[in-house]
Each structure stands twice: as C-alpha cells, then as structure tokens.
C-alpha cells in the first residue's frame, strides 16, 4: 500500500478512510504480525494523552503507510482504554495536531509550495471535506490577513459556548445570514470540525466477535499501560500557592524570556493553569504568554470536565529542548510540578 502522503497528515479525511478500506487491511493481522503501524499507534495515543499532540517524537521512523494505518489502530486502542477522559483528550490532540498542520499548510508561501515535495492541504479541499464549501466565502484578497464570511448556521454549529464572548453572535457583525471571521478564526472552526469527526463513534465496541476478542487480547498490555499512565498523571501534586521564585528552572527561563517556541508556551501555560491561574492573570503577570492563542490554550488546558491536560513531564520537555538550566533538585524529580511542590514544601519548612 502506497497511500497519498496527504492522508498520512490528515488520516481522518473520508478519502483516507476509504483508502484503508480499499486496501483491505485487517487491524487484527497488523497487531498479531507486529506491524510498525501498531507501534506508531501506541505512540500516537500515548502522546495524545500525555502531551496533547499526536505528532511523533521520531517522525523519520515512520512511513506514510505507518502514519495512515496508525490512526484506525489508535482508535481501537482508545476504545479499549474506554475512559471518557481518554477519548476526549485523544480527540483534542488529533484536532490540535491537525490545526497546526493546517495552519502550516495554508500559510505556506508559493515558494514553500514549490520547494517542498510534501503535498499540502489547500483550503478548498478542507472546506469540502467538512461540507463547508458552500458555507464559507473569502472576503477581499489580502493574503496575509484574510477575512471570510461564514454561513450563520454553519458558524453556530461549530462554535462552542465556552470559547468566550467574542464568538457570541451579538458581538459579530452578522449580515445577510453570514458572519465575518478572520483567517485564524476560520482555522479554529475547522479544528472543531476535526475534533468532532475524530470523537464521532468513540469509544466503539471492539470485542464481541472472535477477531475482536483476539485483537483486544493482543492489545491488553498496551491498554493497561495507557490506563496506568492516565492514573499517574492524575497523581501529579496539586499546589495552589503561586510562588514564582520556587518555579523550576525551565519555567523560570521560559517566563523570563521574550520569545517562546509554541511548545514552550504550551508547557508554561499548562504549568500555570495547573496552579489554578486563569488567562487574564497569566496575561497580566507573564506578558510573554499574552499572545493571540493564550485564551484558546487556557480553554483547552482548563479542567472543565475532568479532561485536563497535564503540564508536560521532564522527558517531554527534554524532547522539545525546553528543559533549561536543570539544577540539583531536577535530579530527584520527573516532572516540573513535582519540582515545584518539593521547592514550595522546602521553603515552607
Ligand atoms: S529537569 Fe524537569 S523541572 Fe528541571 S529544568 Fe528540566 S524540565 Fe524543568
């Protein structure tokens, strides 16, 4: 099987699913044969639950086929884990990763498009994928700050009431049944369309047939590990004092800096949300985090329904070169929140 590389980046596209169906690939066989797609599926789910992304830590290891096939296997794994928080976090992570890829694809300049062989999604394809082709019209021709008009019914179908006042219709200049949105707002709506596509039908019943039972048995160890990881995450210390002088070195470096990578901004925001801080407080005290995405990051990270993302562990921080100036205490912990809890306790003593 040599899939369209676009399907490897967007495996939830209908055409990607059909390509898998056409190839007549049996997930039980992939699992029992130890196919690399199964290992990538394990990573996909683990990264989704622990780090809020399904991007691989070692992308060079995986072919387009592995990427594409890992998606249906990841859905089987999430269904077997069968915890609401797992389903929600998995769908959020798929949607976030797709959102990042989509932004990169849609913002690529003509030069990028010519110089990079990897196929990129274009807006028309993505709108058609989610039956929005007739609901979205481009306004003007400013390539850097595009505006769109979105049919009000489609807008209301996708907007979540938790997104904040600026998304309420009363705060939009509704005209002729259409809502004006900026380019990045349209991407946010598309992210939501992806999330809903991913969550649709999850969890499903894997068992109930001989093949399903065999599959569940073959993945049993993976499911147990994922459940344990989720439980571990829930056992992270809860510290509700805010003492920046006790923050771990990585967080101090990030919050004292003036230009954060997307991963460092996510990690620092997740750390502060774990301490119970809201977006306004974060923006006021740490202006370096006060960018266009802060409200959105906090909304995703906040614990509204038990599906809170944990702040990234030290291992994840190291992977993204965000573990900065580790000190002696760092040698005794595996998570920035554990560092902070220990530092606060020691200062109290
Ligand atoms: S070891 Fe952990 S807590 Fe210490 S600086 Fe690195 S990421 Fe931060």
UniProtKB/TrEMBL annotation:
Its cofactor is [4Fe-4S] cluster. Binds 1 [4Fe-4S] cluster. Keywords: 4Fe-4S, DNA replication, Iron, Iron-sulfur, Metal-binding, Primosome. One of its GO terms (cellular component) is primosome complex. It holds the Pfam family DNA_primase_lrg_N. GO terms for molecular function: 4 iron, 4 sulfur cluster binding; DNA-directed RNA polymerase activity; metal ion binding. One of its GO terms (biological process) is DNA replication, synthesis of primer. [4Fe-4S] cluster binds at residues 250, 314, 323, 330. The keyword rRNA-binding does not apply. InterPro entries: DNA_primase_lsu_PriL (IPR023642). It comes from the Archaea. Regulatory subunit of DNA primase, an RNA polymerase that catalyzes the synthesis of short RNA molecules used as primers for DNA polymerase during DNA replication. Stabilizes and modulates the activity of the small subunit, increasing the rate of DNA synthesis, and conferring RNA synthesis capability. The DNA polymerase activity may enable DNA primase to also catalyze primer extension after primer synthesis. May also play a role in DNA repair. Heterodimer of a small subunit (PriS) and a large subunit (PriL). Belongs to the eukaryotic-type primase large subunit family. This is DNA primase large subunit PriL. The lineage of its organism: Archaea, Methanobacteriati, Methanobacteriota, Stenosarchaea group, Halobacteria.
